């Protein structure tokens, strides 16, 4: 399993900033959200949630990964979606339920925090 640091997420605020710097500045948050909605409905982007932070957006072809977020230090790691495929298939086989786990990050402890002693 290849886990990598994952920092390339765009929030609606990032997108507003990026677009506003190239335009006359008559953009507002509502316009950005409306544009994101249209893009998501057309299948170009997908949104997800990482911890308690803002909603993040990916291009759809980049979205086939699962986020892991550390509940202690907030570090975000991503793994390829295929690495959790068998976990999802087991749930579906046993219950008929089709989980969409990629919509939310899995929370837990990152390697560094897991190593740290909890009792001081
Ligand atoms: Zn991601
Ligand atoms: Zn959502
Ligand atoms: Zn951590």
Structure, explained:
This protein has four helices and seven strands, in the order ββααββββαβα. By secondary structure, the protein is an alpha+beta fold. The chain has one domain: Winged helix-like DNA-binding domain superfamily/Winged helix DNA-binding domain (Arc Repressor Mutant, subunit A), CATH 1.10.10.10. A four-stranded mixed sheet has the order 1-6-5-7, with no helix packed on it. A three-stranded antiparallel sheet has the order 2-4-3. A hairpin with a 5-residue loop joins β5 and β6. The radius of gyration is 17 Å and the shape is flat. The N terminus is likely disordered. Bound molecules: zinc ion (3 copies).
Number of DSSP strands?
Answer: 7
- What is the H level of CATH, i.e. the homologous superfamily? Winged helix-like DNA-binding domain superfamily/Winged helix DNA-binding domain
Structural shape:
flat
> Main beta sheet, described?
4 strands, mixed
What is the chain-wise order of helices and strands? EEHHEEEEHEH
Low-confidence stretches: 1-5
By CATH, the architecture is named Orthogonal Bundle
Distance between the termini: 32 Å
Secondary structure: helix percent: 25-40%
- Strand order in the largest sheet: 1-6-5-7
Rg calculated over all Cα atoms: 17 Å
Share in β-strands: 15-25%
Mean pLDDT: 85
Q: Given the structure, what is the number of helices? A: 4
The structure class reads: alpha+beta
Tally of structural domains: 1
Question: Which small-molecule ligands are present, each listed once?
Answer: zinc ion
What's the CATH class label? Mainly Alpha
